[in-house]
Give the backbone structure.
Amino acid sequence: MFKVIQRSMGPASLSLLTFKVYASQKKDSPPKTSVKVNELSLYSVPEGQSKYVEEPRTQLEESISHLRQHCQPYTSWCQEIYSQTEPKMQSLVQWGLDSYEYLQNAPPGFFPRLGVIGFAGIVGLLLARGSKIKKLVYPPGFMGVAASLYYPQQAIIFVQVSGEKLYDWGLRGYIVIEDLWKENFQKPGNVKNSPGNK
């Protein structure tokens, strides 16, 4: 198309100098006519109507479809379980982050108190040698006593709430035992001296 002609020449030390470059048109190329934008194939609209034709399903596609239909109840069950456990896990993660933030900015004297409470638990574990019931009762009991010395208001609230829960559980257990007693031991055939059989 165009031929570049360099008009200046010089040694390598003069390479930083500016020079002019002229372009000349080839003399043997014929003049071309310009093409309009709408004549380009990029902008042309194809003629005719297009029609969607669905390809027949292959054996692999049929197998995958059958597998998806077979697994659909299980995947929906997993999604339901995930949707139920996700808020609980998020609250657990948030609790962990809040605890971490609290431990990073702990009030003065918190870690010595935590050490005393932990030491009380270890002492309770050492004193509970031999019995599994003692191992379940002594460490939490000693830790509870040590914690109640440092945090008396929270200990009172904890005792009140746990006392109400223990009373509720005891009442439920009493009702269940009473119902079982009535069903198994006080049937009409088992009672010898009932008031109607004199």
Observations:
- The first strand starts at residue 2 and ends at 6.
- The beta strands are 2-6, 21-25.
